[in-house]
Amino acid sequence: MADGEVMAGCLAEAGYELVDNVGDADIVIYNTCAVKGPTENRMITLLKRVPGDKRLIVAGCLPLINFRRLSKEVHFDGVVGPAPGDKILQVVEKVASGEQVVALGNAQASKPNLFLPRIRVNPVVSIIPISYGCLGACAYCCVIFARGSLRSYSIQDIVERIKKDLASGVREVWLTSQDTACYGKDIGVSLPELLGAVGKVKGDFIVRVGMMNPHIALDMLDDLVDAFDDNKVFKFLHLPVQSGDDEVLKLMRRPYSVEGFKRVVEAFRGRFPRLNLVTDVICGFPGETEEAFENTVRLIELIKPDMVNISKFFARPRTPAARMKHKVPFTEIKRRSKILTDLTLKIA
């Protein structure tokens, strides 16, 4: 969402007129996601529906995750990777002049200026990417092909961006990343340090911290909990477990144990009894036995998250999981997904 706000802001400042309907547009830009198979399918369907007399630019992760399928099934005039920033202006200018543009070079290293103009979806909410990329190597994840390795913004730049947004009426700040816990590891700082600096900013606002992975949170757990103990920090924790079975976590290349995940949850709930806890679970990962699935069910029953994002496993192109044996039949994946869905509706 932050990438789209920046693209819209850059285009508007350059004099382009933004319209709400495809029918009124000369050039249509879709900022795509392709993290899951069904998401990719929906994106392809949307792109195919763009009228043939419109010039189409496909931005975001899809061109880097599955360019072969995109090229085969969709007629486009331009493609650009995620977080293009003001580079979108060059792509639009060339497409408007009749060129076909493939601007994917160095897209995995993109890190736009944090002070580019933006058009916020919600005028009182500032969505600030504190970093791009991650330090993970999850067996199922294709986002690494689009987002690349970790690239963090400085604490000073993030704080200045927040101050600027507060001056324009913002009252809520969302700090986002592919993994907020790994923020700053490439530049010698940390998420607790960032939150400490943000908490010192004057003004009446609240901060929401995005998803973080358990193993990195564990490495700085005490400092992280202390950093959340600030009136400006919303007591919200998005901590994806993905599986409640240690053997499946190893297959997924998730470098933590179920006990490690529980330690993070217990530390946060011990300090913040009214914590809003969200987790993610993948059903039917290759090698997930019935016993392993039952371990996940028991973990969810024990932890009782406020919300669980449940995903059916779909192999993504070029990922290690796509080559794994012992695949779970899709009918069984659907059964397990329904069991977890029913459980979460009961306990949430």
SSE topology sketch:
Blueprint: H1 2-13, E1 27-32, H2 37-48, E2 55-60, H3 62-65, H4 67-73, E3 78-80, H5 87-96, E4 101-103, E5 125-129, E6 131-132, H6 143-147, E7 151-152, H7 155-167, E8 172-176, H8 191-199, E9 206-209, H9 214-219, H10 221-228, E10 236-238, H11 246-252, H12 258-271, E11 276-283, H13 290-303, E12 307-312, H14 330-347
Parallel strand pairs: 1-2, 2-3, 3-4, 5-8, 8-9, 10-11, 11-12
Antiparallel strand pairs: 6-7
Helix pairs in contact: 7-8, 8-10, 13-14
Instruction: Write out the CATH superfamily name of the largest domain.
Output: tm_1862 like domain
**Fraction in helix:** 25-40%
Number of β-strand runs: 12
> Alpha-carbon distance between the termini?
27 Å
Tell me, briefly, the overall form: globular
Task: State the secondary-structure class.
Answer: alpha/beta
SSE order, one letter for each helix or strand:
HEHEHHEHEEEHEHEHEHHEHHEHEH
CATH class of the largest domain: Alpha Beta
